[in-house]
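Researcher: We're teaching a course module on how sequence relates to structure. For the next exercise, students receive a sequence and then see the predicted structure as tokens, so they can try to spot secondary structure elements on their own. Here is the exercise chain.
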Amino acid sequence: MEIHSLQLSNGIPLIVVPTFAGAPTSLQVWFLCGSRAEKEDEAGLAHLDEHLFFKGGDDFPDERRVERELRLLGGKYNALTSRENVFYFITSSPRHLSRAAHLLSDMLIHARMDEQAVKKECKVITQELNQLRDNPEDFAESEFTRFIFGDNPLGREMLGTKKTLRRFTAADAKSFKRFCGPPNGVITVVGDIELEKTTEILEERFGRISQKEPVNWLPFRMAESLRRQP
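Model: And here is the predicted structure for the students to work with:
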């Protein structure tokens, strides 16, 4: 198995890993713009945008069209927001790589973030926030992280706060797309694929992403009271 490290014309790194014949193909897009990239009044935007990217773009204009296409691909798909990354993937048959790239690029580049969708998803996430206290393990992790990192973005709950979720608008959601592209992205493809054809597909779909604002993390310095004493 050989790992090919390439680059799209817009500067996004591309990692292509051809494996054995008949293996499913996993297309993964990573952006270095998790909750740590948020300002205080943006708490929860990274996770909100993860929800909104599945609501449609230009070629797949609404949530129903996105879901229909995902079902037709017959594989698995999901997304994840962490403190430093947002991750999207579609795993399907190798013959569907072009369709998967079309759908995923449309979602990420041309996301339709209207006020109705923002308000709806903010209510959904508020329920997730309420349910956090019902899971002792998740709640303990959230509180421990807050204790260690304090007011630094690393210490904030990734879901945001009820205050920010009530206030977010479509303009807020769109503003956080300022990080979703080069130099903050990387794309990986693993499976039964051919290097040249795969590169052409991804160049066509993702090479059009424009340059974005570089992520500059707010530095973290552990509180004096938490440092190990000699």
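Model: If you want an answer key for the exercise: The chain has eight helices and six strands. The chain has a mean pLDDT of 93.
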